[in-house]
Amino acid sequence: MSVTRKGESSLLRHRHGHRPRHARPAAESHRWWGLVVIAIAQLMVVLDATIVNIALPSAQRALHMSDANRQWVITAYTLAFGGLLLLGGRIADLAGRKRTFVTGLTGFAAASAFGGAATSSGMLFGARALQGAFAAVLAPSALSLLTTTFTDPRERGKAFGIYGALAGSGSAIGFLVGGLLTEYLNWRWCLYVNVPIAVVAVLGAFALLHDRPGTAGARLDVPGAVLGCGGLVALVYGFSEAQPRGWTDALVLGLFAGGVVLLGAFVWWQGRAPVPLLPLRVLRDRDRSGCFLTMLLAVIGMFGLFLFMTYYLQEILGYSPLRTGLAFLPLTAAIVVGSTQVSARLLHHAAPRALMVPGMLLAAAGLLLLTRLTVTSRYTTEVLPALLLMGLGMGLTFMPVFATATAGVAPQDSGVTSATVNTAQQVGGSIGTALLNTVATTSSAAYITAHLRGPADRARVVPEGIVHGYTVAIWWAAAVMLLAGLVAGFMVTARAPKHSTPAGTAVPETVV
């Protein structure tokens, strides 16, 4: 009897062992189609950071936004995204990656539809904040699903390469799609377009993605999320209110003080929380902290550039939305070349700061060229060289920041480290857009007041004043880039890596 059972068991194992040989192509096909679903979702999240830039002048006119408030279309998204990203990763651990992925997609689509139908600026700002909140849930679960779907090291490397390439091309696609939709349909379609994309991704997720149940022991650090996000909102709101109220206004100073107190309380709580959002041991490494701070400062200047150049090209030079999108392509191409053809080749032979410091100097040089803009500047001779320098410098910086920040991280901290790099990107974008927009609008108003002698001068003085405000803000952005170079030079002391990043290390998304 036992022999017979053993024989049957052996036969079953034999048959079962032969199934994978025939089923492997189907299983591999499902995995790669699953990657398509994950990549579509990731592309949607990255694309939304830039697609609205091109539509912003049209949306501002349609919803009667002030110059001081227009930046909230961008900062509401990046602030909610960056402020809640660490919490979103914990939610994915607790509820399960696939469930969180589908929830994030559904919420993102609903928020996009809500924003597309906006009848007031406040409604649009709220929709963008909701988009950012659901993106903070969606992005970590997408990355985790990618990790659990591809377990073979060779397949995983290929999958992460495709994922990273799509994330890296997100801004270029965003500029182009934003230009096409705004010019040939309406600025609202820059938000509506997410709905069909999300529907396809949700259907694909149900059919192709599989995941283990959520971790029963995972806990949410809600106080940490409230303190961290609250502190960031207070700082960004303070920067935005500095333009109409003045830097010494009681409310502005109160917001800055409140933001500092809340962020200080966040750091204090992270040292005592049972399951902290950001374990302080991640920040105690000098190289890692230097990379986080370098990324934060670099993106402050970069996002400010996106905002000002969009308005400069459309409002001053008279470019159409589509032509504006095309005008940004050299910047993205330079970032890709600097990252994949220069940094990737030199990273294993040079210390990270040997790439990061020159990268920040090149980016600062590009911004300094843009401080010479006038109402009659030409794109090919004065804008294009600056965009190429800026892109090459950012490309030189991004790759070593990612590699150094995630190198040598304990397995249990790899996810939170990756999320912290992403948080630095999004928070830098929020602060940069709010701060530099305030500097620009304040400087423009002062210039126009000082030079406007009568109604006859208005047609000349107002454009000159707007461009003057942009150039003053770009001076600030160049100074921040130089500060990022100093941080990289003095804080990041790591030597050239001796080996590549382990396959299991999470790959952060890029802002480019």
Give structural notes:
- The protein has 512 residues and is mostly helical.
- It folds into three domains: 190 residues, Growth Hormone, Chain: A, CATH 1.20.1250.20; 52 residues; 234 residues, Growth Hormone, Chain: A (Up-down Bundle), CATH 1.20.1250.
- The protein is built from 19 helices and no strands.
- The longest helix is centred in the first third of the chain and has 46 residues.
- The N terminus and C terminus are likely disordered.
**What is the count of DSSP helices, taking H or I runs of 4+ residues?**
19
Coarse structural class: mainly alpha
Q: What's the CATH H-level superfamily name of the largest domain?
A: MFS general substrate transporter like domains
- How helix-rich are the residues, as a percent range? over 70%
Largest sheet: none
Mean pLDDT: 79
CATH fold description of the largest domain: Growth Hormone, Chain: A
